[in-house]
Amino acid sequence: MPAAGARCAGLRRRLPVLRWLPRYSLAWLQLDLMAGLTVGLTVVPQALAYAEVAGLPLQYGLYSSFMGCFVYCFLGTAKDVTLGPTAIMSLLVSSYAFHEPVYAILLTFLSGCVQLAMGLLHLGFLLDFISCPVIKGFTSAASITISFNQVKNILGLQGIPRQFFLQVYETLRRIGETRAGDAVLGLACLAVLAGLRAMKSHLPRAACMESLVARLSYLIVWTSATASQNDYRIDPNQELLALGFANVLGSFVSSYPITGSFGRTAVNAQSGVCTPAGGLVTGALVLLSLAYLTSLFYYIPKAALAAVIISAVVPMFDAGIFRTLWRVKRLDLVPLCVTFLLCFWEVQYGIVAGVLVSGILLLYSIARPPIKVSEGDVLLVQLGSSLHFPAMECLRDAVCSHALAAASPPRSVVLDCCHISSIDYTVVVGLAELRQELRKHGLSLAFCSLQDPVLKVLLSADLEGFQHFPSREEAERCGGAEAGGGGTAPFTSTSESLLLPTGLIQ
Question: How does DSSP classify residue 385?
Fold first, then answer.
């Protein structure tokens, strides 16, 4: 029985649909239908527009919009998340597909295999190493890149290169060639979308309205305007599995790579979706569009699609993050700016560079932890964070510079380890060398406030003359003098000579 229960728990973990399907109710069905229809009305125009960003025929946007809905219903862990084409993923695809659908489909299959492997190997923790400044710099730069990439369609210009800096130069140089009809249509669509977004924040709730016209207006505005996501945690490894399966299976229906959509996920959440079953309705609506509307895609003006794209990606630009980081922690502006600037060259280079810079800053903080030194009869040294091997040389320099350069050298050095939760072998060796160096100058080294894991490592290392005290006060009171009878014996503050435990003198 316990084995069967464990198998059932593992199956529910890998198939999250088994968690909510037995409890499914008619009330949930009504809300899921409404949310699925709402997201479906959003995904169809966006999918067509994002295919343009990816440099593919418009129908490939819809080819990419239904498989993720079906797969995530069974494998997803969040009720609100919707998988499909996104602006940023489309921008990345355009860099590698070279306007060839066959390359985009192959990219879908390969990326799905990588995601499946990461999920099976439980590598979701790697996402923790992408810091918020990197994400903000990436999304802000992508917002500008995608928006300016559509300016040529708003103005009706032809032959503009896709590289950002060349694109800016050519667009400004040839702005006099603007086609009036395209410009009027594109700007009008932008104005309508901006108006709908503004109306959404000022309309009262539909439940408070009495007029049928007002209710219809609210529905139109709501299905056309972006909202906030629900705040709950998901399983990153299971999400990788769901995304991997969606991409692998999607490659068999001519999909280009998909991922979670910020905007449509927010619409799904605010529409009151109860379970991932809302994705089934969205996927069915996309399939109906493919079956009956494909022949009409040819007549969609590029200027109108450009307006949809710009309206969707402009909110991703977070201008306030620069001011916030300047006020909170200015050092975080370094990975933000590196990511932001390099993403204008190539998005993938910007992300990699930002992650590397964040990693360097993280390693530097580990290698140079804050060290507080209090001088007196006892030199008290306290580390503000954990102690790892890159920081050992920094600790040694701090101790020696204070203990050996003082006019009246202390009798002992006490290392306060209250903030140290783990150490490695290199640290153990470094501490032994530090003790030997201090001993040559007639000084002793003691430890206080050791946590159990650290104490266990130091005892296992069998360090010569190792002694420790339960608290800083006791270490200071004993004056750092070593007493016979074991490493944990208290110091005698009146001792004039250095007494070592029996058997530890070489």
Answer: S
Residue-wise pLDDT tens digits, 409-436:
677 889 999 889 888 999 999 999 999 9
The total number of residues written for the chain in this structure:
506
What tokens appear for 306 in the block?
A: 């450009």
d(CA 352, CA 399): 38
Neighbours of 456 (CB within 10 A): 11
- H helix or E strand, kind and range, residue 239: helix 236-250
> Quick check: 506 and 498 in contact, CB under 8 A?
no
The whole-angstrom separation of Cα 355 and Cα 486 is: 48
Query: How far is 326 from 333, CA to CA, in rounded Å?
Result: 7
pLDDT tens digits for range 184-201: 998 998 898 888 777 766
d(CA 239, CA 72): 9
> How far apart (Å, rounded) are the C-alpha atoms in residues 88 and 258?
10
Residue with tokens 């969040």: 78
Give the DSSP H/E element, type plus range, for residue 72: helix 67-75
Q: Give the domain 371-477 fold.
A: Transcription Regulator spoIIAA (3.30.750)
**What percent of the chain clears pLDDT 70, i.e. is strictly above it?**
86
Instruction: Report the distance separating Cα 97 and Cα 162, nearest Å.
Output: 13
Domain range summary for the chain, segments of one domain joined by +? 24-314, 371-477
Strands 259-260 and 371-374, by their bridges, are unpaired
Tokens, residue 422 = 């783990």
Q: What is the pLDDT of residues 437-493, one digit of tens each?
A: 888 888 888 999 999 999 999 988 888 888 888 888 888 777 544 433 334 444 333
Average pLDDT of the chain, as a whole number: 82
Question: Cβ neighbours of residue 213 under 8 Å, at least 6 residues apart?
Answer: none
Quick one: how many helices (H) and strands (E) in the chain? 23, 7
HEC secondary structure over 22-67: HHCCHHHHHHHHHHHHHHHHHHHHHHHHHHHHCCCCCHHHHHCCCH
Q: What are the DSSP calls for 441-497, one per residue?
A: TT-EEEEES--HHHHHHHHHHT-TT--EESSHHHHHHTTT---SS-TTSPP-TT--S
What the block records as the tokens of 290 is: 């493919």
